[in-house]
Every structure is written in C-alpha cells, then in structure tokens.
Fold D-glycerate dehydrogenase.
Amino acid sequence: MSQKPKVIVSVPLPPDLRERLAAACDLVDVPMGQSPADAVPADVRAQVSGMVCTMKTRIDQALLDALPALKVSSNFAVGFDNVDVAAATSRGVLICNTPGVLDGAVADVTIGLMLCLARNLVAGDAFVRSGAWAQGPFPLTRDIRGKTLGLLGMGRIGRVVARTARAFDMPVIYHNRREDPEAGGLATFVERDELFKSADVLSIHIPLSAQTRHSVGKRELSLMKPTAYLINTARGPVVDEAALVDALRAGTIAGAGLDVMEQEPLPATHPLCGLPNVVLQAHVGSATHETRRAMIDLAVANLLDALGGRQPAAMVNP
Ligand code: DGY
C-alpha cells in the first residue's frame, strides 16, 4: 500500500508541477468546481489529507465532514471567501492562499479599467471599426491626471495601485479598517464617507466577508460625485449590484469598471451588459501566464510544506 499522502487536485496543473506533486503524493483528480464530496468515493475521501483547488470549491462544514482526514487545503487564489475558515480552523485544517504574487497583475487591470472609463477607449475602438469616424470626430473624454484616486482597502494590491497611480500624477486617498503605516507618502488616510465624496475614481481592494458583503451600496454611491467612476477588481458581492445599476442609470455616478460581479460568469442578459457607461472584464485580474504560474507554484509549495510538517509561506488561519 502507498505511503504517500492522498491529495485532491481540482485545478489545472502545468505538467512539470504535476510530476513534482505526483512524486510526493497520490493524486485524486476532481473536475474544477465539482465538490470532492460528490466526485470522490467515500473510501478514498476518508484517506485524503491534502487538497489544491480554486475558489470554485466550497470548503464548508459538509465538505470538511466528507474529508475527515484533511490536514491542508491550498487555494489557487489570494481570496478565500470560498472557505469557512472558522470551521476549518476548529478541525485543525490549514487553509493556504497565494498573496503577493498577483498584486501587479490585478493593479494593472485596475489602472486599465480606469483609463478605459475616463478615455472611453472601448467605445473608441468600436467607433473606428464601424466607420463612424468618417462622420466626425470621437466625443471628448476626461483626463485622469490630477484627479483624485480613492482606494477602499490598502492591502498589498491597494499599495501597488497607489504606487502606479502616482505615475499618473493622481493624488491618492484611502480608507482602511486602520491606518496603514506603509501607506505614508503614498496615500492619505481619510474617513470612509470622505473617501466616497472626494474620489474621482473609487477603486475597491477589500476582501469579501460577511462584514463587507454589499458594503458599497445605495448610500455610498449617493455620496459619490456624478463625474466619478467606480472600479471593482476585488469581489463582486462587495458591491450591491442592483444599487449600482440604479446609480449608473440615474447618472449618480459617471461609470463603472468591473472585473468581478455578483454572478460569475455574468449572463449576457444582465442589466450591466446593456449599460454604455460600464466596462466589463471576465474576472481576469490575475489571469496572465506569468502570474498564474507564480500562483500555482506557491499553491503547490504551500500544500507540500504543510503536508511535510513545515510552515507554509501563506496560510490564512488565525
Ligand atoms: C484571487 O486570487 O483571489 C483571484 O481573484 C482569483 O480568484
């Protein structure tokens, strides 16, 4: 009988990494997003001590019951709102994630959305392709230089966005649960309402939790300038999307750039898809070859470290 630990793999692995993992563990493949509770027979589940998966795998009481020998689950993501961390912790299950390696990629999409909104770049592309240019020039857009960027959340990604925005001569303000000593010189702390009132571009960089769900809603949107843009590259449900659609229709704010939505994939029939003042992306913040490789390297290293009794580089249990 194999002495190797049994590990569920519910994420696409590059061949070299799969080989490395297979040398140390018995791999049990589960299609991405399918619950191992449904996909793996009970006698195999009973022996599983590790798992590497995406945000699509819900790690809740029911799954923890179905994997009684689980020691570690390694998320191929920095976010971990798919995990009941308290339930995992009370059973001694380590939960790992991939912070740090995707900050630049997510910040780049944030800045890209900001430029698309202010300079109307997506509509500009359609304007040229359709031949409309022959009828006259493209309508004037707005500068971002000198405009105030407001960051809701000043963690690793927020800091990279702040640094990048300085290159656009944008004053940066932020609100965080507490003032960030590392933000000094980069951004100015303001109260939460002040952030919404003063920002010309308001970008969200907080995790999704019971406390942050719909924390950007009708009240916050009504504080914003009618010329301001909202950007969300964090998690869709942080924003009350129905309130956002109302604000975009009413012109309470000028536009929104969204890489994340409450429902993903976003159906083409969703009201957001019919609004001209919205730029949408398919949750691609970290989706570059280089960044995804760094993320999967870290996720697998976390898993192997935890199984080997070493401290993983990134774990989220308190
Ligand atoms: C992350 O790493 O959390 C990205 O949003 C991918 O889900």
